[in-house]
Amino acid sequence: MKHATTLPLPADWRDFFALTKPRVMTLVIFTGLCGMLAAPGTIHPVLAFTAILCIAVGAGGSAALNQWWEADLDGGMKRTRNRPLPAGRMDRESARDFGFALAGASVMVMGVAIGWLAAAILAFSIFYYAWIYTVWLKPRTPQNIVIGGGAGAFPPLIGWVAVTGHITLMPVLLFLIIFFWTPPHFWALALYVQTDYAKVGIPMMPVVAGERSTRRQILIYAVLLLPLAVAPALIGGTGRIYGLSALVLSLAFLALAVRVGLRQSVPGDTMKPEKRLFAFSILYLFALFAMLVVDRFATLQGWQA
Amino acid sequence: MTDEIRGEGTAQIQGTDLAAFRARQKARNRVLGVILIALAVLFFAITIVKIATPPPMPSAQAAGAEMAH
Q: Which ipTM score applies to this complex?
């Protein structure tokens, strides 16, 4: 018997693009590119483009896998309920297959075109974000943001290794800078944005440990970040331009973090110090990595020793 | 060409549903085509660069070559 029916529309290509979290990808591309440009050595522009593309596509793949796994949680939160999966614009299997395809392709192309060490780190970073962070630790510990910071810290390390072919202390320091920058950056936002993570059972620090503990930890991470940010200059990995810039930027970051760390909000609080710290944290990371590249350029030009 | 799609069994869709279905398919195929062409160009460029770049010399061989000069 024949009957008329409405088949579900295939997902729009824009929804596949949205699965890759393009805004997060811009930061990944920027830090990966800075790691590559700051590394000692040269790389052919075509290979440099390929390496950055692989880093971006790998990040997109892990973001798609993250959204596949968290579709139900995303549906319960105002900020994320309009994403392709919770909004019902795409079936889960498509998101899963898309995520695995991007992840696999990025690792394979990175291995063949650039090198297998860079490919192995890229593969681990995808596994780290999609499994260690998303599946394993995010729903279990209020330190999830600290752990998630590790995923965002891989791109400059991969960019550096793509040029040099090996891991030294410098790219590890770049990794640690982003790792220690993430908690104060995110928790400053979490203090003034009402998120509904608690409603879906994700243990975010301000909800689980309280405001006072979150503020104290913001301060601790900002204190730890300062020597790490300056360390590349201290070990001779960069010149004075980066060293001075990192010192000034990190002192400013610390000053803002102190204001947030030592206060307590009151009813009707405008949360200005927290907003200022969050806004500056974004500028801080962009400026720090940009100065890394400027420093390298100045050294190559012979403007500094 | 009849204006219908036969799915599993005897299911069929007609009219505006079909137009939307086809438009969505067309847009996806167009994007996929652009991506595949871009990848083909990229792989070609990578191959040319790899062919033009000599492989790194093993350290022992390199040392020998340096001594010979």
A: 0.84
